[in-house]
Amino acid sequence: MAGVRHAVVVTHTRLRESGTVVSEAVEQLRQAGFEVSIIDNTEAPEFGSRPPVVRDDTEIVVVLGGDGTILRAAELVHCTSVPILGVNLGHVGFLAEFESFQMSEAIRRVAEHDYSIDERMIAHVDVWLPGASAPLEDWALNDITLERADRGKMVELSIRVDDVEMSSFGCDGVIVSTPTGSTAYAFSAGGPVIWPNVKALQLVPLAAHALFARPLIIGAGSTFAMDILDDSTSDGWICCDGRRQRALPKGTRVEVRQSKDTLRLARLSGAPFTNRLVTKFDLPV
């Protein structure tokens, strides 16, 4: 007798249609032979913490929600090989593979192992607080933001690439994004779209008071470093994927590089990323 297959359903409880869709998804997964766990906790873990991950025997995580819910689910599969399948209940749903009306087909294909894996690069961040002997560590699928803690003042930053100083300026902050995150906050702030098969990181300044304050893109083997200068008029605030965050005092260094880990997205369509870009952004073509 074959072993029991296990799936996790992660949902956004505040979306109006989530209750009905969750019930349908759970029932369809069970009919397909899955044991199902439901996770609807929206509380963000602390920065630098290691939240619990899914069971070792989990076959797939089905996410019912928008991109924010997928980012929450990513915390559950970090450092595992468990893939995520997104069913969009939000607005753009850039990371989702299906819309809610296609859920039955999605679950049927999951049950039949009829999907491919899209490995996405994630970013690793080390935060060196003043006088610390070891860094606080975290990660991001989309982006890491370093912003001013005081909304009425600027944060003064020094920007380095591979320990070579590139620039220093006062600003509202900077975004360091992965290719996956290049269509999110970084895009809204003027950064370019980076195709997900490109191994790179980009840094996008936010309202910087400097002539040389344009987006920078570095290769996967390089590292961005941002120092909060001692004479900054504001402390800093760091946030990973819009969830895990903490205050940073002056004198803190933040280093971001490619992580050795990846995140696995289940894909049921072989269409290229360009098609997804045109569809999700409703481009005039």
UniProtKB/TrEMBL annotation:
Any one GO biological process: NADP+ biosynthetic process
Chain ranges passing through the membrane: none
Residues in coiled coil: none
Catalytic reaction annotation: NAD(+) + ATP = ADP + NADP(+) + H(+)
InterPro entries: ATP-NAD_kinase_N (IPR017438), ATP-NAD_kinase_PpnK-typ_C (IPR017437), NAD/diacylglycerol_kinase_sf (IPR016064), NADK (IPR002504)
EC number: 2.7.1.23
Keywords: Kinase, NAD, NADP, Transferase
Domain of life: Bacteria
A UniProt-annotated Pfam family: NAD_kinase
MF (Gene Ontology): ATP binding; NAD binding; NAD+ kinase activity
Protein known as: Inorganic polyphosphate/ATP-NAD kinase
